[in-house]
């Protein structure tokens, strides 16, 4: 099984380590892993300067699209003849890209998975199963999802690349049949990255998922990484159930879930789960969820069913339309020019995981 990674930056490097871990474990036959980029990284892997060259040379079963979101549309233009499986970094596109044209370039592919990695956390899966088993109905959701990307060297379309995670988690847990309706989006912009002097860095959103209000905040200039989701459900009998999910705190893959209901004198714990980070087979940290995603894709390519359904091209399109709607509704204040007030150091590829991740 051959792999071609298009864009071996931070995200592409994580996928490389995940595939190398599978190879090290001997759970599947991973053959050639090549990459497409602007420059060679002297890592011993086959290097190609164009997608066409990489596809012709490696004949990949799986292509990983891990270029920055602002370049993704141009890469998809070169993928129209590919008939294998595609893993695509989130978000699928930038808000200004042509979604229908992008989808048409993937018409021949055998499968597609958007990298919504938090779906592969045990706490997300456990809560989804609990909600289904108890026929819970969502009454309200809120989230905070942010990190500090000041000085990030990577181009970006902005905070829609961040808010996609909590919006997807809530929808995934509560069942994909419910659709979002956006009521309002308020944001701020700045020169936090190299993308320009006024890129949307933070947004507060008010929406509804079915009949349930969803209020959330996402930011690329949060002073610390924070990834939390709170949910209130109703049982069929009418009582309330509360759930709190916390991701990647204090380290990547350190996730916690707590589900409870209110008793007469104290809360009654219904479900509790903690996961802890551990090194992968190749020694890398913070890869457990990515490894589960990659393992499912490899199984699918080999003809076996994945452990859970992929965020496929149809879901990617629906989420992209939601992000486009949020982007169109954001009203922003005057941009904050961080670089005019201080010298912000640029984060390198081997630098701070808090900024890059």
Explain how this protein is built.
The chain is α/β, with parallel strands linked by helices and 357 residues long. The protein has 2 domains: 3-117, Rossmann fold, CATH 3.40.50.720; 119-277 and 311-356, Dihydrodipicolinate Reductase, domain 2 (2-Layer Sandwich). It is built from 10 helices and 15 strands. The protein has helices at 10-25, 51-58, 72-76, 99-104, 122-133, 160-174, 288-301, 313-329, 338-341, 353-356, and strands at residues 3-6, 33-36, 47-48, 62-65, 85-88, 111-114, 137-148, 180-190, 199-209, 212-219, 221-234, 240-246, 256-262, 267-274, 331-332. The strands form 2 sheets. Strands 14-13-12-11-7-10-9-8-15 form a 9-stranded mixed beta sheet, covered by helices on one side. Strands 3-2-1-4-5-6 form a 6-stranded parallel beta sheet. Helix 1 (10-25) links the parallel strand 1 (3-6) and strand 2. Helix 1 (10-25) packs across helix 7. The chain is globular and about 65 Å long. The mean pLDDT is 93.
The overall pLDDT average reads 93
Strands, total number: 15
Uncertain runs are: none
The CATH architecture of the largest domain comes to 2-Layer Sandwich
| CATH-defined fold name of the largest domain | Dihydrodipicolinate Reductase, domain 2
Question: What is the topology, as strand order, of the major beta sheet?
Answer: 14-13-12-11-7-10-9-8-15
Order of helices and strands: EHEEHEHEHEHEHEEEEEEEHHEHH
Structural class: alpha/beta
CATH class of the largest domain: Alpha Beta
- Our estimate of the beta-strand percent is 25-35%
Biggest sheet details: 9 strands, mixed
